[in-house]
Amino acid sequence: MSDEQSNRATAGQTKWAEKEKWAEKEKSAWLKEQKIQRSYLDDVIARLQSINDKFDLEQYGVLSYAPEKYPLYIVKTPNWDSNKKTILITGGVHGYETSGVHGAIRFLEDKALNYSQTFNIMVVPCVSPWGYETINRWNPNTVDPNRSFVENSPAEESAAVMKIVALIMAASDSELLAHIDLHETTDTDNSVFRPALAARDGVSQDNWNVPDGFYLVGDTYKPVDGFQTAIIESVKKITHIAPPDENGLIIGEPVTQQGVINYDTIGLGLCCGFSNSQYATTTEVYPDSPQATDEDCIKAQVAAIVGGLDYLIEHSLV
């Protein structure tokens, strides 16, 4: 087990087992238990600054609970053109999902400029930096940012992303064609975060089997099956695809094709739904698999982006 996997296994462990919904007292006690385990400034901001000469790096806000520690950045490819369609890539909506953050940065470092002749590309590598540092799903207010991409969002992390994307798109006079949101499903989803959710809300949560492998979450109302297939085929070159469980499900949902399930992304307030792009997907890698390393997971995230963009180009959708 790598150090990163070991950190995930112990991240955010909680003693909470109450059946009553948390009040502010319980939320405050939970917050006091959370510890900084890695550095957003070193792991994320420093790497973005190292490529600042190749991209447009824009600070779009800070987080009010620690503004000096958590400046928020969006990265854009240079020379935006209103005649090009735009791609949005987001990572670190759940800060503990490490390869989403590092996959977004790796794409910028290795691939983004190759596609900038065809697309305008904007990347938010780490939506939730406090969650990144503490290896958490929630923000400090026990709010899940990936259920908060809604009007009057309860998560300032989500609200800030929605605001900057809207401003950029309004100014660019371009179409937002695709949105790829980079996530992970980890063993701690069942061992830590779902029990904490049950305690916070005073509602029982049924654990589902954690899939061993990569899968995608598309949109129920815009499934764009060919786009999802292309991403799966690209990722297959890097790592294995999650099989369904004995009931033919992945995380409790029916499989629509190999490695793909669909959600009502807008109705659930998910990140990949707020942009209302035609081609939207959420990636899910499994970093705790004995068949994959942390590096495999980062490469799989990059492969997912590349597979999606290549599909759009090959099908003349640009």
What does this structure look like?
The longest helix is centred in the C-terminal third of the chain and has 21 residues, at 294-314. The radius of gyration is 18 Å and the shape is globular. With 318 residues, the protein is of the alpha/beta class. Mean pLDDT is 94; it is low at 8-18. It has one domain (3-314): Aminopeptidase (3-Layer(aba) Sandwich), CATH 3.40.630.10. Strands 1-2-4-3-5-10-6-9 form an eight-stranded mixed beta sheet, sandwiched between helices. It has a two-stranded antiparallel ribbon with strand order 7-8. The chain is 38% helix and 17% strand. Strand 1 (56-62) and strand 2 (71-76) form a beta hairpin.
Helix and strand arrangement:
Blueprint lengths: L2 H8 L13 H10 L6 H11 L5 E7 L8 E6 L8 E7 L6 H13 L1 H4 L3 E6 L4 H6 L21 H17 L3 E9 L3 H14 L13 E5 L5 H12 L12 E2 L2 E2 L5 E4 L7 H4 L4 E7 L8 H21 L4
Helix pairs in contact: 4-11, 9-11
